[in-house]
Amino acid sequence: NLGIWRRFAQFAAITEPDEISRQNLESYVVHLVNVDKLDPKTVKNHLSAITNFCRYLADHEIIDRVPRVAAPKVKNLPPRFLTPNQAQQVLQLAKENDALYTAILIALKTGMRMDEIRRMSWEDIHWEQRLVVIPQSKSNRPRSVPLHPELKEHLHKNIKAKGPVLPCPFHRGHFGRHYTSRTFSRMIQPVVQAMPEVFTKG
To answer: Which end of the chain is more exposed for a tag (fewer CB within 10 A), N or C?
Structure first.
C-alpha cells in the first residue's frame, strides 16, 4: 500500500531507502498506537504493508535487510449480544423501511453476516426443514441456520419463487437484483450507527 509507505516515510523523515531502520519503524508503531489511537489490527496492517515493501527493496538489493518489529497483539473480544429490549428498539428504528426491517430481523434471528444477508435468495430458504442454507459463508463453505418462526412468518408475507430476498430498488426487473456491498451498507447505516452489534461484517 503506497499510501501507508508514504505516511511512514513522512513520519520518519525518510528520503532514501537506506534510511529505513528498526528504530524508526518501532517509533512509527508507537505513534500509531499512542497518538493516532489505531486499533492493533490496523497497526498490524500498516506494519505488514511496510514490511512487504521493504522485502521488495531487499530482493532488488536496494536495502541490505528487512527491519523486523513485533506487531501489537490483536485482542479477541467476546461477542456482544442485544437484550430483548434493545432488539425491539432497533426494529422500531426500521419500521418505516420494509427492506431495512427485514434485514434487521434476519440478523437478529439467524446471526447471519452482512454479506450473507445481502446475497440471500428465496431459493436458499427451505421452508419445510425450517432452514436457511448459505451457499457461500466466510469460510467459503456452505452452512445452514435455523429459520426462526417469527422470521418465517415475516418472510412468508412477501414470498417469491426466486431472486433476492432483499431486492435492490435501484435495479428494475421481475425478480430484481441483490444489493451491492456499498448500497447495502448505506441502507443499514442508520442502524449500524445506533447499534453496531446488530450486523456482523463479512
So the answer is: C
Name residues of the chain where pLDDT drops below 50.
none
What is the distance between the alpha carbons of residues 67 and 27, in angstroms, rounded to a whole number?
A: 13
pLDDT in tens, 42-61: 888 899 999 999 999 999 99
State the Cα torsion 151-86-189-3 to the nearest 10°.
Answer: -120
Find cell 415475516 and name the residue. 154
